[in-house]
Specification:
It is built from 11 helices and 13 strands. By secondary structure, it is of the alpha/beta class.
């Protein structure tokens, strides 16, 4: 089998039609049919069910498709290995961001590539860490930036470019707690607390600092994977936000005693033992500029 055959297979699976795929690939329909038939013969099983004029991937075809994507992407990245990204390069970045990194990196990433690499497509997916990790394994994403304390360690994932950022309790200017020189935890807990889903390590820190009342299941009343929603609620109500300080610089940090003294640890996550994508050095520079 060849990479050309795999590209034919991927294109056909994407559009679901020999006619459309042959147009996309700029080849005749009989030539595409021969390419797919040759691939099926070599693999020993059908990749598609032919249903009249329609085609559908078989269960075997779905498995082969995932592996074909990985092989073609690896070959493409290997071809660019050692070369720096240039303004004339084109391609697609599929980047997954959890809540904190999403609030800080979404706009800078899109602005940077629009300005310096305008031929690139940038797809940003915002979700929780577990969902993003599965999408990375399924090759639906190329890289993640997430709180690595929420990421289950695994040999197939590589974590790098770790940045630590302060987490704290915040409120809107004019909030009853905003200008107090000292706020007890009991007084803070009298207001609804909002947060993105917290890691087990963060839950442990909260319990160590403030007792069982500090456990997220008790303390946090409003939860969302999207931090911008939490910030908006905090701006408009007496809600207290527990989040990364840098994601809401216009909010007021509450002078809680004892202080939280907790840090989020954000990291760049990719598939282990895979050639580095051409865009990753640019992403690392952005992480340095924004998160450090």
């Amino acid at each position: 089998m060849t990479l050309v055959q795999l590209r034919h297979f991927i294109a056909l699976a994407r559009v679901g039609s020999f006619v459309k795929a042959s147009d996309v690939l700029c080849m005749t329909q009989p030539a595409l049919s021969r390419s797919i038939k040759s691939l099926e013969d070599e693999l020993g099983r059908l990749l598609f069910d032919r249903i009249g004029k329609r085609i559908e991937l078989t269960s075997f075809g779905q498995e082969v498709l995932a592996r074909s994507h990985a092989l073609v992407e690896e070959a493409e990245q290997l071809r660019h290995c050692g070369r720096r990204l240039s303004a004339d390069d084109s391609g697609r970045i599929r980047l997954g961001l959890s809540s904190g990194p999403g609030a800080m990196l979404s706009a800078p990433v899109m602005a940077h590539f629009a300005q310096h690499f305008p031929k690139f497509h940038v797809d940003i997916v915002r979700a929780n860490t577990a969902s993003l990790a599965q999408m990375l394994r399924d090759r639906q994403l190329d890289a993640l930036v997430v709180d690595i304390r929420s990421l289950r360690p695994a040999p197939d994932l590589r974590v790098s470019q770790i940045a630590e950022m302060d987490g704290t309790f915040m409120c809107r200017p004019g909030h009853p707690l905003a200008d107090l020189p000292r706020v007890t935890f009991a007084r803070l807990a009298g207001y609804p607390v909002a947060s993105t889903p917290l890691s087990e390590e963060m839950a442990r820190i909260l319990v160590e600092r403030y007792g069982e009342e500090g456990h997220p299941e008790v303390l946090v009343k409003l939860t969302s994977d999207e931090i911008s929603h939490m910030v908006q609620v905090t701006e408009q109500t007496d809600t207290v936000l527990l989040a990364i300080r840098a994601c809401a610089p216009h909010l007021v940090e509450i002078a809680l005693q004892p202080p939280l003294k907790a840090k989020a640890r954000f990291g760049l996550v990719t598939i282990a033992n895979k050639a580095e994508a051409l865009f990753l050095p640019e992403l690392r520079k952005l992480m340095d500029a924004v998160m450090r």
